[in-house]
Amino acid sequence: ILTVPTEPFRWSFLPAAALSVLIAAGVGLALGAPTLRLRGDYLAIVTLGFGEVVKVSLRNLEQITGGMKGLNPVPPPAAGLRLGGVDLGMQFAVDPRWFYALALGVLAVVVVALRRLERSRLGRAWMAVREDELAAAATGISASRVKLSAFALSSALAGLAGCLYAACLSTTADPNAYDFNRSVMVLCAV
Question: How far apart are the C-alpha atoms of 67 and 60, rounded to whole Å?
Answer without folding.
Answer: 6
